[in-house]
Amino acid sequence: MKYRNIFLRKGLKQFLSIFLLTASVFSLMLLQGCEAAGGSPDDAEVTYDEDDPESSPLFFTTNATAIKYTKNTDGGQILQNLENGKISDFRDWTLSLTLKEEKFDDGKTPDKESGVESYLFKISDKEPLEFTYVIKGIGQYYIKVDGKWYRVDNNKALPNYIK
To answer: Average model confidence (pLDDT) for the chain?
Structure first.
């Protein structure tokens, strides 16, 4: 009986050792698979030179003549014009945003979720610019411009003069 208990203990220890080793290897493989499949959003790259405003996907010149925007909510749409005196401030705000490109599956983009608020901006400039700013929740802001989605990485909300 004494020898039987020793063999059971050894067998249990070996089983636990093999189980823990297998679980550790599986966990590492799972983590590596997630990284290969796209990684976390924090791994996204800034796709423009933050020190060169003209390389920003939201760049427009100081000669912009008008900005029209449409606010979209579950309650409907509101079309407004930005006051001429605020165009320069709005330009400064857009260029202060840190954008990280994100990819979404079809139909899973931030603007397709219920309860979001979005703004479609149309800027009249030498080269017209159009982009969508989406608010998913506090600190969750996204921009779509030229067919690409970006996460606003520095969590800058819209200026207060945009209603």
So the answer is: 78
β partners of residue 118: 72, 134
Query: Going by C-beta distance under 8 Å and a sequence separation of 6 or more, which residues neighbour residue 65?
Result: 124, 125
DSSP string, 119-140: EEEEEESSS-EEEEEEEEETTE
Instruction: Compute the distance between CA of residue 22 and CA of residue 6 in angstroms, rounded to an integer.
Output: 24
Query: Coil, helix or strand for 72?
Result: strand
Find out whether 150 and 142 touch, Cβ atoms under 8 Å.
yes
H or E stretch covering 67: strand 66-73
pLDDT for res 6: 58
pTM metric for this prediction: 0.68
The residues, ordered by sequence, that sit 6+ positions from 50 with a Cβ below 8 Å of its Cβ are: 56, 98
Rounded to the nearest angstrom, the gap between the alpha carbon of residue 1 and the centroid of all alpha carbons in its chain is 64
